[in-house]
Automatic annotation (TrEMBL):
Keywords: Membrane, Transmembrane, Transmembrane helix. Residues 17-42 form the DUF6533 domain. It comes from Crucibulum laeve. This is DUF6533 domain-containing protein. The keyword NADP does not apply.
Length: 302
């Protein structure tokens, strides 16, 4: 009886976190609804699908866990592909940087594909029917491949982030100008990486060190766990998934806003941003003829 109560409490915690994440997603959607209608159009508005109770049949549970492994791999490869396109836009003339980033991107994607194949072929899904009267599919163990599914994205996205930051640092060091769209890509990519890196690292630590139920609190959408019990319904809204949705939506809206010809700021948006170092000036010594002028200029720039 005590085990049932613990599972029920853990399932409730998962659902509460999912409800909080869904609330954040809806709130952000409401805040940006006018921008989506103006920038993107009525026909392409974001559609939300609220997941329901998962059937506790063996076929549904097996399909659910296998689908999560596959969808997690596909979504990770797509997101990293978008980041790689941003690296290409920033480093278009630097073939070494592009080759370096492409090597890690394709290497990471191949690694994830191999891990999913290993997951399908090498491990089975064991159904524990001791609590078959309760709805849903609940994981109780983690698969052997779980560490690789987080380590590979951590390495790839760290490399892509380094390429973006190195380009921005070069602009700043040389005091050169860059198109505003490139500065926007750099800023959004940096923000996305900081949040995504935190979730990837936390996911790895949770799966390696924490109890299995914590995985559903943080990364429901990649919850490909194999020894499962049919207990609580798990909604498909986790902090990591919702953060990716919100960040991706704002990145797209920012690009649309930058290129909107009806915007009054359109011409200024197309201008360049200057990444300049503070100017260095040699001031005259006290008592010289230019000392008074230098003091007035210093007062003006302070």
């Amino acid at each position: 009886m005590e085990g049932i109560e613990i599972l029920a409490e853990q399932g409730t915690a998962v659902n509460l976190v999912a409800a909080a994440c869904l609330t954040c997603l809806l709130y952000d959607h409401v805040l940006t609804l006018d921008q989506e209608i103006k920038r993107i159009g009525r026909d392409t508005l974001i559609q939300l699908h609220i997941g329901g109770t998962v059937s506790n049949s063996r076929r549904i549970c097996v399909f659910y866990l296998r689908w999560l492994a596959l969808s997690g791999m596909i979504s990770t490869c797509i997101v990293q592909g978008i980041l790689m396109l941003r690296v290409w836009a920033i480093h278009k003339q630097n073939k070494v940087a592009l080759a370096f980033g492409s090597f890690f991107y394709f290497g990471g994607s191949i690694t994830l594909i191999g891990l999913v194949i290993q997951d399908y072929v090498g491990e089975g899904v064991v159904i524990n029917r001791a609590l078959g009267s309760l709805p849903g599919c609940y994981p109780t163990t983690v698969p052997a491949i779980i560490a690789g599914t987080w380590i590979a994205p951590l390495i790839v996205e760290s490399v892509l982030f380094f390429l973006v930051i190195s380009r921005a640092f070069t602009w700043w060091r040389n005091g050169s100008s860059a198109p505003r769209i490139l500065s926007l890509l750099t800023r959004d990519s940096t923000l996305y990486f900081a949040i995504a890196f935190a979730f990837l690292l936390a996911s790895y630590l949770v799966f390696q060190l924490g109890p299995p139920f914590l995985s559903s609190l943080l990364v429901t959408y990649v919850n490909q766990l194999h020894d499962i019990q049919p207990v609580s319904c798990i909604l498909s809204y986790s902090p990591s998934a919702v953060a990716g949705c919100i960040l991706g939506s704002h990145m797209l809206l920012n690009l649309r806003e930058l290129s909107d010809p009806d915007d009054e700021q359109f011409e200024s948006n197309r201008s360049n941003v200057v990444f300049a170092l503070p100017s260095r000036r040699i001031w005259p010594m006290p008592g010289s003829d230019d000392h008074a002028t230098a003091r007035s200029e210093a007062r003006y720039f302070s």
